[in-house]
Amino acid sequence: MKIKLSGLAVFVVLAGVLSFILLVVAIGTDFWYIIDASKLERLNNSSAALSSHSGLWRTCRRRSKCFPLMNPFWYENNNMTASHKQLLKMHGTFVILLPLSLILMIFGGMTGFISILARTYLLLLMTGWLFLFGGLVTLTGISVYIAYSAAAFKEALCLLGRNNLLEEVDIKFGWSLALVWVSFIAEVLNGAAFLLAARVVGLKPRREQRI
Q: Less CB within 10 Å around the terminal CB: N or C of the chain?
């Protein structure tokens, strides 16, 4: 099957723009982690809003304002447990990795634009590996966030002393995290498309020599 470079160019543009936009939206929204405590509110006849949804930077309660999470890069060590320090380190890790993936996408977009116009094998190859590396960074950030969420919930259970909290509270990952997964897939496909484009460009001189 003959693969046209123009078709690959259209695909990498669409996939790159989609991946970038989805990651920007995900990083800027607060629906990564959703806690639905409506059942607990009814059981306790509480008027206070216990349900919340969280992002990378802040936590928001229903019918109330949002408040920022603790700065993982600037905090005092006084009266802080080892597990809490570990949570802050994990928090600092994924808030660095995910924006870093955005930066890699920007560089990949610039080199990709030049490589498609110039049809240079090495530049296409480098862009492909750059997007794949960016996808790896995104995947690492997602994995650290999921591990962070599990550890934070475990820490909350220990502080509250209630192991049966899951029976009264519904906890799930939100659509912001789903956007990151789609962005990751688009980023990997984009990298693979650039590698395929590099292969197409690299095979052209061989065909011309045979002719």
A: N
Q: How far apart are CA 195 and CA 127, in angstroms?
A: 8
Say how far apart CA 196 and CA 188 lie, in whole Å. 12
Angle at 13 between CA 15 and CA 200, to 5 degrees: 100
pLDDT tens for 168-189 read: 677 889 999 999 999 999 999 9
Residue 108 has pLDDT above 90, yes or no: yes
In which residue are the tokens 């009266």 written?
A: 79
Q: CA–CA separation, 77 vs 88, rounded Å?
A: 11
**Pairing assessment for the beta strands 33-36 and 170-173 based on DSSP bridges:** antiparallel
C-alpha of 39 from chain center = 30
Query: How far is residue 193's CA from residue 148's CA, in Å, rounded to a whole number?
Result: 33
| Residue 51 DSSP symbol | -
45: left (phi over 0), alpha (psi -120 to 50) or beta: left
In whole angstroms, give the CA distance from residue 192 to residue 57.
Answer: 32
